[in-house]
Amino acid sequence: SVAEPLRVLLAGDSMMNDLGPSITELAPVALASIDLDYRVSSGLSRPDFFDWPSHLAQVLDAEHPEAVVLVFGPNDFQNLEVDRKVLEAGSAPWLTEYGRRVGVVMDLLHRPGVTVTWAALPAMRDPEFSTSMATVSEIYRNEASNRPWVRVVELGSALNRPDGAYAATLPDSDGTPAALRQGDGIHLSRAGADRAAVLLWSDVSERWAVENAAGEARADG
Predict the structure, then answer these.
(1) How far apart are CA 179 and CA 177, in angstroms?
(2) Gap between the Cα atoms of 137 and 152, Å rounded
(3) What residues have CB less than 8 Å from 129, skipping those under 6 apart?
(4) pLDDT tens digits, one per residue of 130-144
């Protein structure tokens, strides 16, 4: 309601910097309070650089967000150090450990009245990197499969070609080609972020009926 707007936390790596303004623009101003919290070059692989689980726990205790939207991955497909051992990226021990870290974040967000929307990444321009991002996205799906408070949203459904391949451009609503990605073939342009934001905000608004409330507020006005 206007008196008690939905508290939304948008968190993650630099891709959330791309997505944040687009999601914020979609959210009804009077009914949603948006907190954008991103860290460039961060992820779940290097807690020595930035410890996302500890940070998110602090944010939840201090700010009490109700809808959490997360994006990680582009910085995460790297070797992990565990108990002074190095786990090679993509190896079976690495997959297990990265899955454990994802599960830790999902579990710490399991609080009464909190929903979690987690982004699965679109295809990337570099084929090898794209395969790596498909691997981490599959881990997100697997870890969310038995955690009903977490929904994984497939950004590729708005950003990939129909065959699932990387798309630098796609037609917009009037058929004009729109550039979806930045020059690195990873980050999103504003047009790409707008497309992805529709998917992410639709999940939030469906679970919280924000759009219905916005319509009722306009009718009452």
Answers:
(1) 7
(2) 9
(3) 77, 186
(4) 999 999 999 999 999
β-pairing verdict for 80-82 and 67-71: unpaired
Give the type of residue at 45. Answer: S
C-alpha torsion angle, residues 51, 56, 62, 65 (rounded to 10): 160
* Amino acid, res. 8: V
pTM over 0.90: yes
Residue at token pair 């939030």: 204
Residue 8 contacts by C-beta under 8 Å, 6 or more apart in sequence?
23, 27, 32, 33, 34, 35, 65, 66, 67, 68, 69, 204
Residue 97 structure tokens: 């450990």
Alpha helices (H) in 76-186, listed in sequence order: 92-108, 127-144, 156-159
pLDDT, tens digit, for every residue of 92-115? 999 999 999 999 999 999 999 999
**108 class by beta-carbon count within 10 Å (0-12 exposed, 13-18 middle, 19+ buried):** middle
